[in-house]
Amino acid sequence: xxxxxxxxxxxxxxxxxxxxxxxxxxxxxxxxxxxxxxxxxxxxxxxxxxxxxxxxxxxxxxxxxxxxxxxxxxxxxxxxxxxxxxxxxxxxxxxxxxxxxxxxxxxxxxxxxxxxxxxxxxxxxxxxxxxxxxxxxxxxxxxxxxxxxxxxxxxxxxxxxxxxxxxxxxxxxxxxxxxxxxxxxxxxxxxxxxxxxxxxxxxxxxxxxxxxxxxxxxxxxxxxxxxxxxxxxxxxxxxxxxxxxxxxxxxxxxxxxxxxxxxxxxxxxxxxxxxxxxxxxxxxxxxxxxxxxxxxxxxxxxxxxxxxxx
Length: 310
What we know:
Strand order of the largest sheet: 4-3-2-1-5
Radius of gyration: 28 Å
Order of helices and strands: HHEEEEHEHEEEEEEHEHHEEEE
């Protein structure tokens, strides 16, 4: 019985060894988040100074401070009154003025802040349902939904207007706010800063070879990557990649890829993948890059692009 058990174990070991000999490779390598983050590596963010935007934090707002309304849905945050008809209030694209605040007791006994705004002769009340300690204690500053601080827009305009910068995104917009085709890593001139939308407070206008376009920008970095550092560089990014041919650099500018481009060149052109897969082969490891829009790239063992779909 003991000899049969030992013979059975030996057969299992032998079969496992033969399987390894026949495949010549291990199974698909497990991918971690760090592997995906490596696809973002590169120095295209190097030497970019941070633009400091002075933010006016509540409760230091002064009466009369102007705010731009980004969405008509703001009417639903205001307290109905005899003076205010929610159904007819249309404020998108207009400016309203801050008119102070009061403290009142909530139904659960908390001293909450009520803010007030003026649109012409119409008084608008926004009940925050937060105490002053809540508002001033947040890591992120207090913001009223759908409003853009016009003082911040003016300050940013004063800093950026007339600047010659290199744009780092091809996500451009037209004057109506519709996404349009854009180039990246080209020299542009900032011509204006306007109030943005309900997600990004600033709309930066620029000129690219006589063409006017826009990008939306945030005052801080976030998961959407639309801060100044994400959008612009003061130095020519092309100079950081002397080994990339002029032909491939033109593809990168226009968001294109071609066979035999490297992983770094593809990353510069269309960005890092949402997911990647590493598959061991006889000659090394192949990489498969997958994007949220269904695009994919396949790199051979030497890191060169062999197959793609955009």
